[in-house]
Write a structure and sequence with these properties.
The protein has 15 helices and seven strands. By secondary structure, it is mainly alpha-helical. A hairpin with a 2-residue loop joins β6 and β7. It folds into two domains: 118 residues, Orthogonal Bundle (DNA polymerase, domain 1); 206 residues, hpI Integrase, Chain A. Helix content is 51%, strand content 5%. It starts with 5 loop residues before the first strand and ends with a helix. α7 runs parallel beside α11 and α12 packs across α13.
């Protein structure tokens, strides 16, 4: 049986001998995974997605001790139970893993490809679907984030950015003064992540050319518009670009200070806004560690992370500064307003309107004077989150 010619999905002759002349299961699995990667690339999947999907398949194989053509539904159940019960993975994380396994089994077991027939010929077992309607995590809600995830309050943000500015001072005052430029970069990055409502990947890929004036708001100078070119995409689609307008005047100050006083120290010409060196971008784990260190030092309760900066931006624009929901939706790049509402936590428009109607009728019935609603836009003062004069002077040293 093992002397038969086995064809790959590309129709090429595939020999899989092991050291003892038996078929090599590891090599065969590698061929299947490479074929799956080609299929995903042709469907427009991104490199990171393909790597993560392949790693998921390998993870289940390692956990179960079985190759994919030997998998059973019980193997999948045990792994998913381990992810939820032992590793405490989030609902959405387990669903993502299940989706990758389901897609792999669908591909490898498809009659359009020779993998299942080859597995039967080589190892006596074919590929079967192990993610079913019974063990698949359901996706019925609009949001799957953990309930403890939340936005920063304004006081918490102020304390966070004050500490980030203080960290720069502490590094400068230390004997070695190592890492001052990285602290300055990370502080600017965290402030920009909040003040434009950016996802981490969007923030990391910003370049200086992505900034331009807003001729309807000339008071922001060269920093009135931020062009996001690495916006979150749907499965198999390219990145979604969007334009984010500058809202806070201190955002323009942070950008101007960083671009003219901090960024040139990485060397010139420098195109990336937050680099670690020429051609390298600051990583998400690094930013996460930096923020986690600040949160631990401040003693803030759990539930805050890098994405909380984006969540805070949306929440504050709507509930504190009084911006229209449609404006916030466009700033965040959400396709649907319902998605924006999940970030902001305000009541739906019809709820607010109904509450206002009932209150107005109640006051009118009592003969009281019904006050006219006033919508006043209150932005933070220009000095909020601005570096103090001593720190600004030391940056120019």
């Amino acid at each position: 049986m093992h002397d038969r010619a086995i064809l790959s999905d590309g129709g090429q002759l595939l020999f899989l001998p092991g050291g003892d002349g038996e078929p090599d299961p590891d090599r065969f699995l590698g061929e299947v995974l490479e074929g799956w990667a080609r299929e995903m690339r042709s469907a427009g999947r991104k490199v990171e997605y393909i790597k993560a999907s392949r790693s998921t398949v390998v993870a289940l194989a390692d956990f179960s001790g079985h190759f994919p053509w030997e998998w059973t539904v019980g193997d999948a159940d045990e792994w998913f139970d381990h992810l939820r019960g032992v590793k405490n993975c989030a609902h959405s994380t387990v669903r993502k893993y299940q989706g990758a396994i389901q897609m792999f089994c669908r591909y490898a077991g498809s009659s359009d490809y020779p993998w299942s027939a080859n597995a039967v010929a080589l190892f006596g077992a074919g590929f079967a679907q192990v993610v079913t309607e019974f063990n698949r995590v359901s996706h019925k809600g609009n949001v799957e984030s953990r309930p403890e995830k939340r936005a920063f309050t304004l006081k918490e943000l102020q304390a966070l950015f004050d500490l980030a500015d203080l960290e720069y001072e502490r590094v400068l005052d230390s004997p070695k003064r190592n890492g001052a430029l990285a602290v300055l970069r990370d502080t600017a990055a965290l402030k920009i992540a909040y003040s434009y409502g950016l996802r981490v990947n969007e923030l990391r890929h910003l370049q200086v050319v992505d900034l331009s004036p807003n001729y309807r708001a000339p008071y922001f100078g060269d920093y009135g518009v931020l062009h996001v070119r690495w916006g979150k995409s749907s499965s198999g689609s390219p990145f979604k670009p969007r334009t984010v307008l500058t809202v806070f005047d201190w955002s323009a100050e942070v950008l101007d200070d960083w671009i003219h006083n901090g960024l040139p120290r990485f060397g010139e010409p420098m195109t990336d806004l937050f680099p670690t060196g020429p051609g390298r971008l600051v990583s998400e784990p690094h930013l996460f560690r930096r923020l986690s260190g600040y949160l631990d030092e401040l003693g803030f309760p759990a539930g805050l992370d890098l994405h909380s900066l984006r969540r805070s931006y949306a929440t504050h624009l709507l509930t504190i500064y009084g911006f229209d929901l449609k404006f916030v939706q466009m700033q965040l790049g959400h396709e649907y307003a319902a998605t924006t509402s999940l970030y902001t936590l305000p009541a739906a428009d019809f709820q607010a309107a109904e509450l206002s109607r009932v209150h107005t009728e109640t006051l009118a019935a009592t003969g009281a004077v019904v006050p006219r609603p006033q919508k006043t836009l209150k932005l933070p003062p220009a000095s909020l989150w601005r570096a103090n004069s001593r720190q600004a002077k030391r940056r120019n040293q």
